[in-house]
Design goal:
This protein has about 450 residues and is an alpha/beta fold. It is about 40% helix and about 15% strand. The protein contains 14 helices and 15 strands. The protein has helices at about 40-60, 75-80, 85-105, 120-130, 205-220, 235-250, 280-285, 290-295, 310-325, 335-350, 355-375, 385-390, 405-420, 425-435, and strands at about 5-10, 15, 25-30, 60-65, 135-140, 140-145, 180-185, 205, 225-230, 255-260, 260-265, 265-270, 305, 440-445, 450-455. Helix 4 (about 120-130) packs across helix 5.
Length: about 450
Amino acid sequence: MRQILLHDTLTGGLRPLQPRQPGRVGIYVCGPTVYGRIHVGNARPYVVFSLLKRFLVHEGFEVTLVMNITDINDKIYAAARDTPLSSIELAAAMTEEYVQDTDALELGRPDHEPLASEMIEPIIELIEQLVKSSHAYPADGDVYFSVSSYPPYGQLSHRRVEELDQGEGVQGAKRKRDPADFALWKAYKPGEDSSWESPWGRGRPGWHIECSAMAEQLLGLVFEVHGGGSDLIFPHHENEAAQTEAARGTPLARLWVHNGMVNLDREKMAKSGGNIFLLHEAISTYGRDALILYLCGGHYRQPLEFDPEHLAAAQVGVRRIRDAARGLTVGSSPRWSAPLRERFFEALADDFHTPAALAAVFDWVREANRDRASGAPAAVGDADLREMLSVLALENLLGEDEREPPSDVLELLEERERLRRARDYQEADAVRERITALGWEVRDSPTGPELLPLGR
RNA sequence: GGCGACGUGGCGGAGUGGCUACGCAGCGGCCUGCAAAGCCGUCUACACCGGUUCGAUUCCGGUCGUCGCCUCCA
């Protein structure tokens, strides 16, 4: 089992993954708030942490991946008002869309996808503990976390409370003792169509507390990896960390791992910014394989520009791997493969450097093509490439494209062969163009022509 | 303003105190009836200014610029 290094936001450097129990890793990732279909930016943590899990499993760890779904939230209430649906119904519908959209990534599901609405009991218990220990105080049916009661506050996001821009009053600001305090529980307000009983009256949980409660519930305390988008570091993760540590006396998580943003037009892709590209549209436009390859083309912590040219390049890369794979045989790989395989996994062990790992894959592809081009006696075995690609959830590139050419295309191909034998190349090329127009590519080889589907 | 991250060739993106990343695109060649795919070769690099050093893209300091967060946000 090799040493895995990951960047930890709390310490600001690379730290080794050191599980509580040898070989077992718990990962909690902040998932979406379901009030609309998710975009490519929302999908990045889903992809990054799903692939990280794959890698850790490959390395022999037993991994539990938790990705929550926030289904209680002001935005959901607001969105539901524009529909005939209740906020609960809207959240349920959007959760279904979310599951469908992410299923299309073909990365499997997280092991747990808890809903805030199903975790009310543990949430209330956690808040009670905070109130009991004077880290929180009720006020008119709300409950607030007292930031000043917890001196380490700010350590995760590396800022001091005094440095925060203390904006004007949000709702309830007058109930807060300190502007930096944040809500753990929000009293029911007219117009909201969901609420739960609590020791402080009817209401609903604040945003940050649900993650503290759910993570502890499913993974225990001081679990190995807490993940999410870098835009969540403050205040969301700062607050999560503060709540749990104040209530339990131990840290919530061991490592805090954050992915960079997906940009569109040089700015963060965001629903509120209006510059979004929906996940399901990206998949139908560029293909799932190209999208995964594109996301792996940048280091997870760096921003990634969503640009048609980058996606097109990823499509070409997909095709390059797929073409190379067609010439492979099932079986163990040649001796030149081992160092490349090692480079691949070392790159991933070093803070999950997928771009460096991909370079090893492409080196492998060239090496295999070179063998084939030089007419090496033995066919190249695919085992190592399969192993590498499967960690990136791209092993399907090794499979044959099942699409069979339709009969009219096959007839045209025969027609072209007749013309070529008759040396009527002009007509033969014209037929080839007709085949291309039907979506198929002709490649002549020493053993005869091959037909390949164009595009994906 | 504060905090954090980052600035590598046409684009994306690795890496290193002196030696080819890799992919896409371009150019030349091989192969092909011609292509495509593939292989070989090849041009545009390390934001700027200082410093350390025999030598820095790589270390140190500063400048400029970009992005994120400081409000809901993956």
